[in-house]
Each structure stands twice: as structure tokens, then as C-alpha cells.
Amino acid sequence: MKKILLIFLCILLVSVNCFAEFVISPKIGYSNIFSLNPGETQNLTFFHKNSLNTFAVSADMGYIGNKGFTFLFNNNFSFLGSINKKMPFNNVDIDINFKKIKGAYWNGELLFGYTFKQPMVYCTLAAGFGAGTALNMSPESVEFNGNSVNIKDFFSIESFNAGLALYISAAYYFTKNIGISFSLTDTLGFGIFNYLMRAQNTVAINSVLGNNGLNGSGGFSNVFYLKIGPVFKF
After folding, report:
1. With contact defined as beta carbons under 8 Å apart, do 103 and 118 qualify?
2. Contact 128, 166 (CB under 8 A)
């Protein structure tokens, strides 16, 4: 079975290289990583809403067949942003803003779809699997109820997502091989976004947040990317 699978993959690679264009597009843009995670306090169920807004860089690459079949593998890194968290506090919904986020969030997509080709314009629709995780992420300050507290080295962020990725892009080619590409990706699925306290001295944080838990269990996630950048095809 393994030999058959290996032969199939070799045939697929040879076919792709003979009858397809290889495309690569480094991009920059905006990303939003959102999670809605259920929590419970005093036998009441509520939801933690986390929204990470950041700058994004990515490397999108793949193959476009002569008949339009498209395979893409995208790597996205999100950083230099802030987190808005909404949760109940004394029976009132509150906003907590985590600032100066260190680290990054990686999200990858494996996509299959179709590209509509014109002499200078390519439009691609694709869908597939997307997944991501936090990479050494931690906030350095938090704002809550008008107060700002330095929390450097107090928290680390543990987060991941996985789900259905939907992708659309348009590329305009100035020459045969060089152009500009605009893309939008939305990954809907399961995820979690938790804050892990790692400092022994938590008096400053507890004075602001009290004893309310910051974490929920796994729930809905939505990862969105809006990007633009050059595109090269060979």
C-alpha cells in the first residue's frame, strides 16, 4: 500500500511539473483571530470573546494546472497587534485590552480549487483545511476599566485553531511572470484562546481583574486574512 501511494505521489508530482504553473506570492496585510469559548461561574454559562488584531505577513505558493485546477499551500504569520477580550465581571460584560503583544500567531492553509484564467488576470476560488497556533505569545500590558497595568512576563498565550478554510484571490500580471495579487482567506472551525499565568507575584493583575477566570473551554474560532503583494509564476 505504501509503495502504491508513493508511486501515485510521484506520478502526481511529474504531472504537475509538466502541465502546471508554479506560483509564489509574498504578501502583507491584516489579520483577525477570533474565538468564542464557553466558560462557567456560579453555575452560569457565559462566553469568552477574544479578538486578536494584527499585522500579517505570508508566503502563498502552489500550482495552477493548464485546465485551471489549483493547489495552494499558504503560510501566515500575525504579530504586532493587540487583543480585545470580552467577559462577564460582576454580572456586567467588560472589555479587557491586552497591548504590546510579543511573539506571533502562525496559521497555515492547504487548499484545492479552480483558477479562472485570462491573458493578464487570474481569479482563484479554493477551499481546504486550515490550522494555526500561538508562537511564544505574551502581552506586556493590560487596560481594564481605565487602568493600565504592566504585566510583562506575567502571562503567556496558548491558542490554536483548526477548520474549513475558504480562499479567494485575484492577480493582475504586468508581464508574463510578474504581477500583483490580492487575497482573502477565512477559516471557520474549532479553537481555543487561553491566558496562562506564569509569574508568582500576581497581585497587580488580581487587583484589576479580581478572581475572575480568564479562560474558557474549546469553542468556535474564525481566522481572517486580507493581504496584498507581488506574485510570480513560472
Report:
1. no
2. no
Residue with cell 468556535: 220
Residue 215 lies inside a defined structural domain of this protein: yes
| Residue 226 CB contacts under 8 Å (≥ 6 apart), including other chains | 29, 30, 31, 183, 184
pLDDT one-digit tens code per residue, 46-63: 777 888 999 999 999 999
Count how many domains the chain has. Answer: 1
- Residue 147 counted as domain residue: yes
Q: Domain containing 84 — which CATH number?
A: 2.40.160.20
φ and ψ at 68, to 5 degrees? Answer: 105, -15
Q: What is the pLDDT of residues 192-202, one digit of tens each?
A: 888 777 655 45
- Which residue type occupies 227? K
In-domain check, residue 9: no
In order of 94, 205, 213, 217, 234, the CA distances from 45 in angstroms are: 16, 24, 13, 11, 54
Residue 160 structural domain: 21-233
